[in-house]
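Friendly challenge for the regulars: who can give me the structure tokens for this chain first? No prize, just bragging rights.
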Amino acid sequence: MIFGVDKKCYGELIEVWEKSVRATHDFLSEKDIEDIKREIPMYFDAVEMHCTKNTEGRITGFIGTADRKIEMLFVDPEYFGKSLGKTLIKYAMENGDIDEVDVNEQNDKAFKFYLHMGFEVISRDELDSMGNPFPILHMRVKKMV
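First reply, four minutes later:
Bragging rights claimed.
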């Protein structure tokens, strides 16, 4: 089941974000993680947020979308492989006309996941949006002919 998110959930979302980043973004330094972590609430405010929860009501994963694009998708590593990311993407596509995502090129698991979900690379930037040397792959859902 998918739930909406409000500001009182931000602390829990940041915990999920950090666990997920530490499990998947091994190219980031500790300083990179801490710098991004301070900025995360600002990013939450700029997107439409939805999450999944476990039976105890704890957030297990979340997605943030804006302007037809997945801006963030993070799942608690304890729940990797349990289709939460897939569920969140399907929800976003069905309810928000989402068809684009950017992914760090160095995050091979995420890149392969998005390929599996039907996305394809349409372009690449050498630097991320903050000017850091983390190449970004711009992806879009394949158009069916």
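The mean pLDDT is 92. The beta strands are 2-4, 48-53, 59-66, 69-75, 100-104, 119-125, 136-141. Your move, everyone else.
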